[in-house]
Design brief:
The complex is a heterodimer of chains A (873) and B (109). Chain A is an alpha+beta fold and 873 residues long. Helices cover 51% and strands 16% of the residues of chain A. In chain A, the strands form three sheets. In chain A, strands 1, 2, 3, 4, 5, 6, 7, 8, 9, 10 and 11 form an eleven-stranded mixed β-sheet that branches. In chain A, strands 14, 15, 16, 17, 18, 19, 20 and 21 form an eight-stranded mixed β-sheet that branches. In chain A, strands 13-22-12-23 form a four-stranded antiparallel β-sheet. The radius of gyration of chain A is 38 Å and the shape is elongated. Chain B is elongated. Chain B is built from four helices and two strands. Chain B has a two-stranded antiparallel sheet. In chain B, helix 1 crosses helix 2 and helix 1 crosses helix 3. Chain B has a single domain, classed as Arc Repressor Mutant, subunit A, CATH 1.10.10. Chain B has 109 residues and is mainly alpha-helical. The chains are: A alpha+beta (873), B mainly alpha (109). The interface between A and B is medium-sized, with 24 and 20 residues.
Chain lengths: 873, 109
């Protein structure tokens, strides 16, 4: 057997330093022969093994990093020097690389901050993983099924008794604003809510003073925020003091820190729900009416599914109604979903800054897209410009640089660039964030990144990773050249299939984003301008307290005299959300049937002021005595559900009316979108109840001089609402609608900005690529010109490759964008249909921008004097 | 490796290279030490010592001719350099000084 094929020798060859290998193997061979002659083959083999194993020691083993010990620090210093020289030498390309990476990084940093802010909602509650919001899926006859976060008072009250898994339950009932008084000081407290005594134990709102467990036990106890405390008393040391409202004295039992911005519950004052029992002794047993929000704190490791399975039995235990489970299906929504996953939940009014969680993903995606486009720029420009580094690589290789060393060098260069880009990107972000905050109404701050060392390190780490990823391909590409080839043939044309593919990736992403922007903007425009069946322009909403309600007729009369005011009306609920559903009954043939439409109480002239069109029948009239409570105007959807040949004159009434004294349908309106355009139009009934309180007054102003109108209302308000001292405050209905579509609008702005950035960064790359390829073809262009090619022919010649790439990108991007956008549009019950021409338009925009970008080079190239290009050879 | 001192084993190897003069290569050095000093020497230990001595500049080496023996592997011959000689002399010198300083009574058993 050949000595060198022996296992110990092969092992030695594997680990031994190559310089020592030859003579060691020779020595071993000599010894082996000798040993074999003396002691036989077996002994010789054994001794050989012993020798080889004893050779496994430092000094003999080869260096893992390379055969030779090198001056690592010196080499790296050289790398830095060379990369700086390269950056400085090709200023245009360095700028393109750095700018596109910086823009990508800025976009990602801002999106990161945005998402972090959104995800931080309700995170400060220590027990957040065990807190659930009790929700209902309501399936009423006559109304589209809807998810709601509200429930009967009894549900939340009984919950902990019925389910051993529920540790405690805290109910929350928003009361809106209240006028509170301390001495002579009367101030409106904006958000007042009644809560169970357990509320501050379930949730960890920070308390400055008072006892978490007992503060909200006794009736007439209130807990206020430090803001409210300061406004009334100029101090936060107010436990034991009292505030008055409506003749009652409320004792302050606790002071909370101001509610953080990232809490879905926002309140300024909490009062104990036990307060209510003075007037409503059976409050905790109330069923049927859904208005409480109940938060259940489960015991650790509880099985939510198991609880939800028991809900039907739970409901039948609460009320004596066989069919209760057909109308209600209860479910538990985890607290972490409340902020970002509640878009399908209606009547969700206690959900501050509710946001569409899927848009968080959209933002993340757009950020990643821009980064990809920026990285591709780097890869393309580096590889396309590889010939400028040929000599360097060749020389390095000839004097012994290993492939891995070159890979290190080029990756180090791109990491260096990424870190520079991070610093610039961060600075850009710092500058633009204030403007962006205005646009998306957030309070994001770049400083957040430094608030947590882990985060700072993470972002730095990701940037370095980004440098490694974008440097990996160029470094492998550049280091793979054979020195003999590159030193001899300078400026060879390298194949660019991969480069073309990367350009296609870039432009597919960019076109996809352009098309998405156009369609999103179209849909948002559609939402804002769709004829929603009533007029919301110049409509002022003024909330009414008891006194203002009493004096409503008086004020209305005075207001209507003012020339700046076109109409005054009032309603029990605000238009723009879903109206609450009420139990109704109607008479068909001889039987009484039940139905649950949305219902709103209105003033006689509501339809006139809101310009809601009556399709058949008549409007409410003050002359008709029965129009107070016994006359209903319904919308077309409701009429369809009722399915009468002629709905006019049919008997209809609230659920509590006697069967033989129902009211009548006096009119049918056209369907109007009283809810947001995300939802279909529900069945709706409108009724006048003069003895019921209105929640809001709607004043239609003359658009020519809004301020004069507002001043007039304020004056009349202050003259009339004197006893309670309730201050005048208003809101435009437009603002309310903006709130409803805020999530969509913000998504629209972000996508638009991102699309612009993506095409910008993509074109920067194209600009660089075009300049390289034209430089390489400058002789060809010279010859063509010398032979008589015209400028326009050359322009076409030089642009057509890029045009082809963009056409391919369009073909790739269109179907994907279509699928995504089509799904997005189904979010809206009312939406535009996608016009295929939009895709062509998107492609055309990309094409025009791209051609214009490269035309800077093509035009210059085609105009040069061929002599300049050719005279060297 | 600025440490130019000689270890005990290094000293033996260096001396043996000097003894063998023109025939100092791996196996001959190993054998010479084994027979002369009656101690077992592994190829690994010896080779490491040789490399170290070469790095310190006490030895220099060159390859011999290709021969049929040893599977065609060349021998690496070692020669002591001037610094090597100096180093050996220093060691001897310092030992001698120490020996001279020992009072006769010390070894009076």
């Amino acid at each position: 057997m050949n000595f060198e094929r022996k296992l110990p020798i092969r092992l030695l060859q594997f680990f031994c330093h190559p310089d020592l290998l030859e003579d060691i193997v020779g020595d071993l061979h000599e010894l082996y022969e000798e040993n074999r002659n003396v002691g036989g083959e077996g002994k010789a083999n054994r001794l050989l093994w012993v020798e080889v194993i004893r050779l496994f020691r430092p000094g003999i083993i080869k260096n893992i990093l390379g055969t030779y010990a090198t001056d690592t620090i010196g080499i790296y210093r050289n790398y830095f020097k060379v990369s700086w020289r390269n950056l400085a030498k090709n200023k245009v390309f360095s700028a393109i690389n750095i700018i596109s990476l910086s823009v990508g990084i800025t976009a990602c940093l801002i999106i990161f901050l945005f998402i972090r802010d959104e995800l931080s909602f309700d995170n400060f509650h220590a027990k957040r993983d065990r807190i659930y919001r009790l929700c209902e899926l309501q399936t009423w006859p006559g109304t589209n099924p809807q998810n709601v976060p509200i429930s009967w008072p009894k549900m939340g009250y009984i919950l902990p008794d019925y389910f051993p898994e529920v540790e405690m339950c805290a109910r929350y009932n928003n009361r809106g604003e209240e006028l509170m008084q301390s001495g002579n000081k009367k101030l409106v407290v904006k958000n007042v809510a009644g809560v169970d005594s357990t509320f501050l134990q379930v949730f960890d709102f920070e308390m400055i003073a008072g006892n978490r467990k007992t503060a909200l036990v006794d009736p007439l106890s209130i807990v206020i925020t430090e803001d409210v405390a300061r406004r009334f008393f100029n101090s936060t040391d107010v436990v034991g003091k009292a505030l008055h409202n409506d003749g009652k004295e409320y004792n302050i039992t606790g002071v909370l820190k101001n509610i953080p911005e990232n809490s879905h519950l926002q309140f300024d004052m909490l009062y104990s729900l036990s307060t209510l029992r003075a007037d409503r002794p059976n409050f905790n047993d109330e069923t049927g009416s859904n208005f409480m929000i109940a938060y259940a704190l489960l015991k650790p490791n509880s099985d939510v599914d198991a609880i939800e399975k028991k809900f039907p039995d739970f409901l039948t235990s609460l009320v004596d109604d066989e069919e209760i489970n057909q109308a209600y299906k209860l479910f538990l929504q985890p607290l972490k979903d409340v902020h970002l996953a509640s878009m399908d939940i209606e009547h969700d009014y206690q959900n501050y800054r509710k946001f569409n969680g899927t848009y968080v993903r959209v933002f993340m995606l757009t950020g990643i897209f821009i980064l990809i486009i920026a990285c591709v720029n780097f890869m393309n420009l580096t590889t396309a410009r590889s010939n400028t580094r040929f000599r360097e690589i060749g020389v390095r290789k000839s004097i012994g640089a290993k492939k891995m060393q070159l890979v290190h060098q080029f990756i180090l260069e791109s990491v260096q660039l990424a870190v520079i880009a991070l610093v610039i990107g961060f600075s850009i972000g710092y500058l633009v964030l204030p403007f962006l905050n205005d646009l998306i109404t957030r309070q994001l701050s770049m400083a957040t990144i430094f608030s947590d060392p882990g985060l700072t390190a993470g972002i730095l780490g990701i940037s370095i990773l980004l440098g490694i990823i974008s440097g990996l391909y160029p470094s492998l590409y550049l280091s793979s050249f054979r020195p003999i080839h590159i030193l001899k043939v300078v400026g060879s044309r390298s194949k660019s299939l991969l480069r073309s593919t990367l350009v296609i990736v870039q432009f597919s992403l960019a076109i996809g984003m352009i098309v998405s922007t156009i369609i999103v903007v179209q849909q948002l425009f559609f939402i804002q301008n769709k004829d929603i069946g009533f007029n919301k322009d110049h409509m002022l909403l003024i909330s009414l307290n008891d006194e203002a309600n009493e004096k409503y007729e008086l004020m209305k009369e005075e207001l209507q005299k003012d020339p700046h005011i076109l109409g005054v009306t009032a309603s029990g609920q605000r238009i723009g959300n879903n109206f609450h559903q009420y139990g109704f009954k109607y008479k068909k043939d001889t039987s009484i049937l039940r139905i649950v439409p949305s219902n709103v109480t209105v003033d006689y002239n509501y339809l006139d002021v809101y310009e809601i069109k009556i399709k058949s029948g008549r409007n409410f009239s003050e002359e008709m005595a029965t129009d107070d409570g016994k006359a209903f105007i319904i919308n077309e959807s409701f009429a369809k559900k009722l399915d009468f040949e002629d709905p006019l004159g049919q008997q209809l009434g609230h659920g509590w009316y006697d069967n033989d004294s129902l009211g009548r349908i006096i009119g049918v309106t056209e369907d109007f979108n009283f809810n947001s355009l995300h939802y279909e139009v529900n069945a709706l009934s409108m009724v006048v109840h003069t003895d019921w309180n209105f929640s809001e007054m709607s004043v239609k102003l003359n658009g020519n001089n809004l301020q004069a109108g507002i001043d007039a209302i304020e004056k009349i308000w202050n003259e009339n609402v004197t006893d309670s001292g309730y201050p005048f405050s208003y809101k435009f209905l437009d603002e309310h609608f903006d709130e409803v579509y805020k999530s969509d609008q913000q998504m629209g702005s972000v996508v638009t900005i991102m699309a612009i950035l993506s095409i910008l960064v993509g074109c920067l790359g194209l600009f660089g690529l075009a300049s390289i390829s034209i430089e390489q073809r400058i002789k060809e262009i010279g010859i063509r010109k010398a032979l008589g090619a015209t400028t326009s022919e050359l322009l076409i010649l030089l642009s057509k490759n890029y045009a082809a790439l963009i056409v391919v990108s369009l073909l790739i991007a269109s179907p994907l964008a279509y699928l995504y956008l089509d799904r997005w549009l189904t979010n809206f019950a009312f939406h535009i249909s996608i016009n295929p021409l939009i895709f062509l338009l998107g492609g055309l925009i990309a094409m025009i921008i791209a051609i214009l970008t490269i035309s800077f080079h093509t035009f210059r190239a085609s105009r040069t004097n061929p002599v300049d290009a050719l005279h060297y050879e | 490796m600025s440490n130019k001192s000689l270890g005990e084993f290094e000293e033996i190897v260096l001396l043996t290279v000097a003894i063998l003069y023109e025939d100092a290569y791996g196996v001959s050095i190993k054998k010479d030490i084994e027979t002369r000093l009656n101690r077992n020497v592994s190829v690994g230990a010896m080779r490491t010592a040789l490399s170290r001595l070469e790095k310190k500049g006490f030895l220099k080496s060159h390859f011999g001719e290709v021969t049929k023996e040893r599977g065609g592997k060349r021998k690496r011959y070692f020669r002591v350099t001037q610094p090597g000689k100096t180093a050996l002399e220093e060691v001897m010198e310092s030992r001698k000084k120490l020996w001279d300083a020992i009072p006769a009574m010390s070894f009076d058993f």
